[in-house]
Amino acid sequence: MGPIEMFYLTGLFFVTLLSFLYYGLAFWGLFYREEEGTVPEEEFFPRVTVQIPVYNDRIVERLIEAVLRFDYPNYEVVIADDSTDPVTREIVDRYASHPLVKVVRRNNRKGFKAGALNNAMKYSTGEIIVVFDSDFVPPPNFLREIVKPFRDPKVAYVQARWSFENLDENMITVFAGTSLLVYHHLFYPFKNRFGVVYLSGSAMAIRRKALEEVGGWIDGTLTEDGELTMRFASSGYRSVYLPYLRTPNQLPFLLNVFIKQQARWSSGMIEAILMNWRRVLSSKKLSPIQKAIVFAIPLFNLAYVVVTIMVLAGLLLWMFRITVFTPELAVLALILSSGYVVAGYVALSKEGMRKVFPRFLLSAYILGPLIALTNTMAIVKYFVKGVPWYVTPKRWKNG
């Protein structure tokens, strides 16, 4: 057996192992039923600060309007506007005189989103901090629902479920949205059973005291949410995922935008694990299975490297007309390595969007290898010279 066949078969072996994990999650998801919201036994209205970090996102207007419609009696809104776009600044300024709103600005973007959130803390009075990215549109009952788990003093943060306004727009949104639905319908509910759900960066609530105890946000991190999750978990705090609290938002619909977003996310999770692996492994407040779950999502990003090696080796085998499998074994290998596709089907079914599965299937085998390659390049670039912080542009229509 030559080196090309060895690279290909090794890559296929690891992809098949990962595929079986997806098969297991898909099977579990078939029987998992999402819980519904419950009415608290007594009123519970801790002070909440809604923080909205903004950078040239004109779409933020509809988020602000949605936040001001919350049916919650004890909250404020802090808009951390780092925008250089005059239209975005003008939109934000319209709300500066509202009694619930504070607009804070900096003369630089030091620390990017994490830096903006740290700055917003100086002006926040809430014991619970809720964060939204500009393209989200939360329902009126969002705060009432998301504060309920904080009755438990060990809960540091609560993550709401994402849903997507434009999932079926094109092949890119189908692929991007289905991938995220796999996390929100399968990964997160499973991790929720062990109290170590990952923060998703938006539609999330954090106990201020716990945030301060672990050192706040780390300026300049590529995925500030994933990095903070590891510190919370290592400190013994619990997390809660609310699958019934759906919060719509937008997906990237242009290929270059999607590639840049994925590059930041994949390299950012590698950065997070490099910053915190010792802390997680040495934590006496995490069980072995909890530690494995904490490491799972960051390490899944290394699968991009394996897929890239396998695809490139497969192309070389095809170019040199080298046969590794008989047709029957090739079909078996395809089935064994298709766990991700099956998980996508289950997630789409749970979302009530089974009709887009054929497009997801096509995108998984066209866009999947491309994203694996670009994410692999991003991970390599991170170790060589770093990856820039990138804000995903949102669609905005005037009026």
Descriptive notes:
The protein is an alpha/beta fold and 399 residues long. The chain folds into two domains: 3-31 and 300-384; 48-285, Alpha-Beta Complex (Spore Coat Polysaccharide Biosynthesis Protein SpsA, Chain A), CATH 3.90.550. Helix content is 52%, strand content 12%. It is built from 14 helices and seven strands. The protein has a seven-stranded mixed β-sheet with strand order 3-2-1-4-6-5-7, with helices on both faces. β1 (48-54), α2 (60-67) and β2 (75-81) form a beta-alpha-beta unit. 45% of the residues are buried.
Which short descriptors sum up this protein?
399 residues; alpha/beta; Spore Coat Polysaccharide Biosynthesis Protein SpsA, Chain A; 2 domains; seven-stranded mixed sheet; 14 helices; globular
Record field, number of beta strands? 7
Work out the radius of gyration.
Answer: 22 Å
Quickly count the domains.
2
CATH architecture annotation name of the largest domain = Alpha-Beta Complex
Q: According to CATH, what is the topology of the largest domain?
A: Spore Coat Polysaccharide Biosynthesis Protein SpsA, Chain A
Q: Let me know the largest β-sheet.
A: 7 strands, mixed
Q: What percent strand?
A: 5-15%
Order of helices and strands: HEHEHEHEHEHEHHEHHHHHH
Count of individual helical segments: 14
Give the neighbour order of strands across the main sheet: 3-2-1-4-6-5-7
Q: Which word captures the global form?
A: globular
CATH class division of the largest domain: Alpha Beta
Q: Please, what is the CATH homologous superfamily of the largest domain? A: Spore Coat Polysaccharide Biosynthesis Protein SpsA, Chain A
Q: Which structural category fits the helices and strands?
A: alpha/beta
Outline the low-pLDDT stretches: none
| End-to-end gap | 64 Å
**Percent helix:** 40-55%
Report mean pLDDT, rounded to a whole number.
92
